[in-house]
Amino acid sequence: MIDWKTLAVILGIIVSIVTPIIKLTSTISKLTTIVDNLQKSVSDITVKNTESHKRIWDKEEEQDKVIGDHEIRIRMTETAIGLTPKHEVV
Fold first, then answer.
1. DSSP, res 87
2. Which residues of 60-85 are buried (b: 16+ CB within 10 A; e: fewer)?
């Protein structure tokens, strides 16, 4: 039969091996949850960033049209009063 000292050593070895494994498993589970949340956050930020860039470019295109119309009005006014521009605007 196994004496108490041998049993205590075997149990000590088992506990010393199993305890870090349990802690490691718990830590891996927490990290997995954190990474999943991080991926979702990055995905949300990417969507919002894309929408924001679209709004910026739409506004830029709108301003290009306004500036183009303004240039036409200036040229028409200069032509009407007989002024010639010193440089050509493209």
1. S
2. eeeeeeeeeeeeeeeeeeeeeeeeee
